[in-house]
Amino acid sequence: MHRFEIWAPKAQKLAVKVDGATFPMATHRRPGWWFVEVMDAGDNSDYGFLIDDDPMCYPDPRSQWQPNGVHGVSRIYGHSAFQWDDVNFQATPLASALIYELHVGTFTSEGTLDAAIHKLSYLAELGITHVELMPVASFAGRHGWGYDGVSLFAVHEPYGGPDALKRFVNAAHRHGLAVLLDVVYNHFGPVGNYTGKFGPYTTDAHHTPWGGAVNLEGAWSREVRRFFCDNALMWLRDFHIDGLRLDAVHAFVDRSAIHFLEQIASEVEALSAALGKRLVVIAESDLNDPRVVTSREANGLGNDAQWSDDFHHALFAVLTPGNATGYYADFGLMGQLAKALQQVFVYDGLYSSYRKRIHGRPVGALSRHKFLGYIQNHDQVGNRAVGDRIGAIAGFDRAKVAAALVLTSPFVPMIFQGEEWAASSPFQYFADHDDAEMKRAVSEGRKREFAAFGWNPDEIPDPESAETFQRSKLDWAETQEPDHAEMLAWYRELMGLRRSTPSLNDGDPRQLRVFYDEQESWIRVERGTISVMANLGKAQRKFLIPKLGRIRLASRGGVQIDDESVHVPPDSVVIVSVPA
To answer: Is the full-model pTM beyond 0.85?
Structure first.
């Protein structure tokens, strides 16, 4: 027997169709809820809902299995059948994490979770502690980035479905790797979203760049919030995920006394205590507002960490002068990179010419482990016109400098798949919509977007072309080629240095000093016993170092310490350890 329950306040009558048989549903004591118990239904039964006099059979908004895609009926999934062997696993604390972001569909040639399992030993040996999966919730088409998910409780079937995600997480834990999952709670995808047939999941009172805004504060919002909170808890409890990355929280509009972000953080904390397992919530925020990661006890929203785009933008802009378009127009000075390293937000109450308004507020004394640092991620690569990576834009030598500054920064470092070997494959925007009009709109929209930046429309990869997706897959054979192997060795050395050096794992902002020269284009970062000297100028630069200082790493060979100084060539970085 199986009890079917569904929140459908819009319906006048409702029935569930199970394996071809129809069963009328009754209203529940909870407002807007319907239920029925079906004797012959159980695991693997197919079902869908009949609403009023609409002849279509709709999938369950809370379906945990969509074996035939987002337009097909749902299938009952039983969690108890899977045998876990990770009972004693505990994630590495976020403060000492090294995060690796990957997209399941392009991480391997097969593009599945089971294929990705075979790369876990590589990631563990590299020094990674947390694997962050881009969204795996079911979306329309076979391939895409995943940010247009519509069946948010179901694992995308082309990736392998729900059992494959469990196999991946179980295997990751065996390798000592925690798993973070990217979830999207600010909008639904444009194709296959049937939630509006059941209830007011979205609102016309607000809008996002990607579609209707989620109803977090209007009528019936209690059940909408419950839908998303239950989704978050499901991934953590039933799939043993170790933490969530919440996409674009700045798109949430919620003026409730208890903000939606605070509610999620609170419920995840309670689940963490109940499970006896370390769980984290990481936000992507464009607000430059430290309240996102300030504790609830201090009147913050209580998230464990957030992405820090100001550090990325500041670093990217000094590495690639002449790319000052869009939001990069606000960056480009070495002093801004120094400020990002010291104070996290460059725009902390300053006027932004790009935004044409005052933006942000100071972070203060918050631990820098509340913020993630990176030079590449899916957005900062994939949202470029041709999806080119930092090595293709700034060059091999400057990509090495970028890696050193990220991996010795006070932030929790994150790298994007293939970055560690300077992968030649781009990461481009791709989709696979089955609706002809949607295909046309996406393709034409992408061309218009970059035409405003001077790009020839013919140069923009077609998102709906299968070649664009295939082009974005990693070529693992590259790791054996000389330049790629050199970069991979560099990342291994940097990660090893970070993991073995206490001062590089200190998030206290008082333990960091930064010096720079705007005209000569150099920067020096001192973190306890480690001094990082990066020269982006045109001439060799001499840096003084204390007695007994020794070179730990250099991005170019042949660098020597001479008379208590080190000579750093252009477009290179040297890391020196000094006595405690």
So the answer is: yes
